[in-house]
């Protein structure tokens, strides 16, 4: 019991056990009086001509049933892996280790953020992913235009990345319909989240309930609940709107901005940043995944005021139509031009660089030849050797956790409690 309680401190194990024990006590009392009546009155009769005895039996059985049912649900994340042959002691150790992990906030979207989350969830279950809501392409864009909901695609990918559910369930969430009038191109997970928003009455509740279905390690939150549109001013002077249109324009991006410009930050996202031990920005598309989050003023301000270890993870290659010809320093400078200096203290870059096939259209990013003013550059092997356009989740997580452990207790040490930090951030 103590071991399980240590493992799941927030699951109210004792409460459910106490409820079951109370039910057993009432049930035993009812049975005792019933047997006494049948044996000729060993115990004194209760008033009510048997009604109280029957009530004790009914209430006792109900409490036992409810207590055991809630206990089974609470312990579900423990016994489900055990049924598939996993070592129960190893499961207990892992869960306890993850529960005591640092509070990490990851900000981004696209394919980069799920890659990061898959690695971090092996080190902590106290992870919060803050996701862009500017997506307007593909299945997400269609659902956004037709139903007026926030785009679910990036949320789906992050939920799956953090999932502890059965592999079949995660495969189901990622299943994409290849035919069918109105269905073709949609993923099941997108439709599930949208349907859940109709059932629960709000998109944020839908994401929360979907996270319970997938038993994720952590939380997935929007940067804002506003219907945000991303605009880009190109070097030629033209203005393009819509995230999906920017990379296909064939022009170099000068700056991006969002409408509404004063979109209100999601309060829980601000709170998570204020309470974080580490804030990780990226990896992901610079202009269409990362900046749409940081251009939400409340999110940017919360990151700026955070005393956490703050890291920018630069992509391992350029992105055609978005960052062609960029260096690592160019990525950093673009961020600084949009959201100011001092937003992060470290930049992680890939040191295991190899030239990429010309037909891919991407150029590998090399570590900077010299220092970047105001930043500590961490060059390490973080690339996926099987697909060199992406980070390796495990390698990247190891670098970030090593950085956190090296700075824990001394980097911008803030002795205030998490609630005080959240209050100071205006939450």
Kindly describe this structure:
The structure is a single chain. This protein is α/β, with parallel strands linked by helices and 427 residues long. The chain is built from 18 helices and 10 strands. It has helices at 2-7, 13-38, 51-74, 76-83, 88-99, 112-120, 138-147, 153-162, 167-174, 188-200, 203-214, 243-246, 267-275, 286-294, 297-305, 328-339, 393-407, 418-424; strands spanning 104-108, 127-131, 219-222, 229-234, 239-241, 253-259, 278-281, 309-313, 346-350, 376-380. Helix 4 (76-83) packs antiparallel against helix 5 and helix 13 (267-275) packs across helix 18 (418-424).
Order of helices and strands: HHHHHEHEHHHHHEEEHEHEHHEHEEHH
The dominant shape is elongated
State the end-to-end distance: 36 Å
Beta strand %: 5-15%
Task: Walk across the major sheet and give the strand order.
Answer: 3-2-1-7-8-9-10
> What class would the helix/strand composition place it in?
alpha/beta
Q: Can you tell me the residue ranges where pLDDT is under 50 for at least 5 consecutive residues?
A: 1-11, 415-419
Q: Percent range for helical residues?
A: 40-55%
Average pLDDT, rounded to a whole number, is 86
Q: The biggest beta sheet, please?
A: 7 strands, parallel
Radius of gyration: 26 Å
Give the strand tally: 10
The tally of helices reads 18
Features:
427 residues, seven-stranded parallel β-sheet
Write a concise synopsis of the structure shown.
The chain has 427 residues and is α/β, with parallel strands linked by helices. It contains 18 helices and 10 strands.
